[in-house]
Amino acid sequence: ALAPAAAMRGAPWARASPSSITASVAGKPPEAYDAIIVGAGPTGLAAALLLRARGARTAVVEKSADPAAFDPERAFLYQVDGRGQRTLADLGLFQALADRSVSQEEFLISTVTEEGGVSEPKGFPQVDLDQRRRTPAQWISGAGHLGGPPGLPAAAEAYGRERAPEAKALVRLVQIGYPLQYSQAVPLLKLRQTLWALNLALRLALAKALGWTGLFHPAVFTLIQNPDLSYTQALRRAGRTTLVLRALGVAAVGLALAAAGAL
Question: How many C-beta atoms surround the C-beta of residue 60 within 10 A?
Fold first, then answer.
């Protein structure tokens, strides 16, 4: 497991729903802890480890009996990009990640269909224009990641205010960049998937051909993988390209109507 038992020693693990946190956590009242982490995913465990390293009394609350159990409605692989790798390096766990994961440059994908069975594995598309200048992202299985000091409330509040713009940008990036990640009842799903793929390809082609203008950037799916960009910067770049594409679309429609009128 990426999170060694020694690192989590003293941090209780409780199976509970968020609504029960007000009553008790691992048999203790909430006031007994400086921080209560809801969810034992990669982010939750990383937060718990970081807080424990700073002396915080920390509890982790997880509703699943086994957080490593397979859930077909959720991702069973995690992509740890440059931001996540920096956090794991701070925790002294980067080597453990490297030992248990597959580099994006070596990641293979097969498609399983009822008609065609399992397709030949193909490499993960390397759409990041600056990929060669950075450490590639690492992919790890969903099970592979398992294994308060004075002033903490004020510090947490200050940190929340400081990071609020990034959090808002990240929420928007996920909405527009990964809208169809999980199985869900979405009207016109096939059409939406096709349009998403076309948008991804169009922005990538324009970024490669005209990226030097500063007006065209890859899609959010690609921009968000760049750890050198803040989420706010990625959202601004994607929005700039969207505005340019809309302006070009309006201009094209205007020219078509003018041409039709001239005929």
Answer: 25
